[in-house]
Amino acid sequence: MKSKNNCPFALSAWVVLAGLPMRSLLTACVGASLVLAVGCSVSKESEHVGQLPVQPSADRELLLPLCERKDSWFFDQNGDSEFSVGDRLTYVFSIGEVDQSGGANCTISIGSFYGSEEIVEKRPAVDGKTQYLTTFQGTAMLPDGNLRLMAMGVVHFSRTERLQLSKTSKPPFRIEALFPEKHPASVQGQGGAFAGLIGTAIVQPGQPPEIKVKLLSQMKMNR
Question: How confident is the model at residue 132 (pLDDT cuts 50, 70, 90)?
Fold first, then answer.
């Protein structure tokens, strides 16, 4: 099998040297060897010019249906015995599976979502329900790893519901009260298959509410 010649000028260089006297030939051989070594190196390096490492796409999209409320708490943080700025809500929902048609299958749980919202502003009532702006934080615990979400959220409570939130307790929050409006969130992967990934999410109301996540590698985001 013939080897590939990476230095096409090598043969012609030695042909020229063949007709020289011995002393001149030795001197020329040293020089020629250096030229050939540099030439071969340049030739090999030139093969890689313009060829940058190809980064595999790390894009990943997830749909997380929040199916069943497993637990919930209200914390009267400021001790004023009413639902107001500074108070905090926490809750745990099971995360359902997504079936082949792209819909939520709440008969199978694939993880849990732990949410925490602190009231930062009271807003005017809409349809008899008072709106509250919150700092929203959540962690989705999944088989492949964890996803952490952060955003400005919103909750809606009727007067009857607010009267029940007068002290630290475990009220059965309505799912519509916790996820009344669509809002964006930032996402950070934590461990497992999500390590090093960041992205965005949309928290969307519905039956059940859903979190639509899009993840990218941090390297790709920094380009």
Answer: very high
Q: Report DSSP state, residue 191.
A: S
**Would you say residue 2 lies in a domain?**
no
Count Cα atoms within 13 angstroms, Cβ side, for 17: 18
Q: Tokens 């492949």 identify what position?
A: 144
Indicate the pairing of strand 210-217 with strand 60-75.
Answer: antiparallel
Spatial contact of 91 and 104, defined as CB atoms under 8 Å apart: no
Q: How many CA atoms lie within 13 A of 181 on its CB side?
A: 17
Are residues 129 and 174 in contact, defined by beta-carbon separation less than 8 angstroms?
no
Q: Distance between CA atoms of 171 and 188, rounded to whole angstroms?
A: 30
Are both 154 and 130 inside the same structural domain? yes
Cα–Cα distances in Å, from 92 out to 40, 79, 140, 172, 206? 65, 24, 10, 11, 17
Tokens of 127: 């349809």
pLDDT (mean) for 130-147: 96
CA proximity to 62, closest of 202, 207, 208, 218: 202
**pTM metric for this prediction:** 0.70
- Please compute Rg for the chain using Cα positions: 33
The domain in which residue 213 lies consists of 60-221
